[in-house]
Amino acid sequence: MTDAEELRRRTRELLAAHPPASTDRLEFLRARFDAGLAWVHYPQGLGGLGAPRHLQVAVDAELEAAGAPDNDARRNGIGLGMAAPTILKYGTKEQKLRYLRPLWTGEEVWCQLFSEPGAGSDLAALGTRAVREGGGTSRSSEAESGGDWVVNGQKVWTSGAHNARWAILIARTDPSVPKHAGITYFLCDMTDPGVEVRPLRQITGEAEFNEVFLTDVRIPDSRRLGEIGDGWRVAQTTLNNERVAIGGMRLPREGGMIGPVAKTWRERPELRTHDLHQRLLKLWVEAEVSRLTAERLRQQLVAGQPGPEGAGMKLAFARLNQEISGLEVELRGEEGLLYDDWTMRRPELVDFTGRDAGYRYLRAKGNSIEGGTSEVLLNIVAERVLGLPAEPRTDKDVAWKDLAR
């Protein structure tokens, strides 16, 4: 299944059998998934046809021209960009069949339970504990299955937890080994007893972030993803995909933050100065270079899993967003100091470029923190892309329980 014309033919068959104008939105999305046209590079039976990733554009173009509904990807960005590729790589057959279809259609929204108050940049230091009933929590019990894990701890900066049905969760299952080795990866039902979600109001006035408290939450072993103690390796797949999803998103020319400021420049000549013009030209070129680099990165993904290159794209994304939104506020002068609405709200999706210039300026401040801080990503680029020596680590061989905290 490598031919674009064959994919177009299948798409036209889907449209004929389920006309968008007369078909329920969810029914159409389910039919699209079952036809293998959701993400064509996924295996057959899991929303794809095993086709090259780049052929997805042929399907999307046909559907867009026909006015077909989409799955509102921004509403479930964590599910689509992070949970799905991790489940695909490490999940059992049963897990893939259970979770991927409602994830893609948007019936089930996902969030990410990784960061903690004491484990942000140093994520591997996390302290949320998962204890297996009967005490079998070490690598020696990897061959065993069944039973429940009891989870206790706190997570923070959880985007969309207030809307999520499921969460990808990493927890410490063995405190007697070094911190990276004692972590296991789980799929957590956010509706289970013991899961409490509290809003975190941000500088924008919104509360898209949350803190999540886990108190004696029971997770069946059937919802463990990967082997016991191998959660850090599984989490790297999630994190690499997260950085590509944030920094490598597909945009048209003048998409993203550069669009609104370029529009204002063209429509408001009275605001222009020579200095602002020079700065805008520089940022416009950088935004276009970043957009084309992201396109190249997506093409590289056809050959395999995302690597550390995504860290570079995420770095560029954060820096450009902050510089461009700052220029926009300055260009607008006094208007740039206005803010449309500071009402506390809990949005269903994260919109980096939405609302007014003041919102964009404030929201962009978080771009250098979320998805990996810029400082951590600089280390990743230095060590894994440029091959520079790693920073000295004194905790590499120390059991987590013996670390100073």
Question: How does this structure look, described?
Answer:
This protein has 405 residues and is α+β, with helices and mostly antiparallel strands. Helix content is 39%, strand content 12%. The protein has helices at 4-17, 25-34, 56-65, 77-90, 93-105, 231-247, 258-267, 274-300, 309-332, 357-364, 374-385, and strands at residues 110-113, 129-132, 148-155, 166-172, 183-189, 195-200, 209-220, 224-225. The strands form two sheets. A four-stranded mixed β-sheet has the order 1-4-5-8. Strands 2-3-7-6 form a four-stranded antiparallel β-sheet, with no helix packed on it. Helix 2 (25-34) packs antiparallel against helix 5 (93-105), helix 6 runs parallel beside helix 9 (309-332) and helix 8 (274-300) packs antiparallel against helix 9 (309-332). The longest helix is centred in the last third of the chain and has 27 residues, at 274-300. 39% of the residues are buried. Mean pLDDT is 91; it is low at 137-143.
Structural class: alpha+beta
Q: Spans of 5+ residues with little confidence (pLDDT < 50)?
A: 137-143
Task: Estimate the mean pLDDT confidence.
Answer: 91
Overall geometry comes to globular
Strand tally: 8
Write the element-wise H/E pattern from the N-terminal end onward.
HHHHHEEEEEEEEHHHHHH
Strand order of the largest sheet: 1-4-5-8
Helix content: 25-40%
Query: What is the radius of gyration computed over CA atoms, rounded to a whole number of angstroms?
Result: 22 Å
Give the helix tally: 11
- Separation of termini? 54 Å
Main beta sheet strand tally, sense and closure: 4 strands, mixed
The portion of residues forming beta strands comes to 5-15%
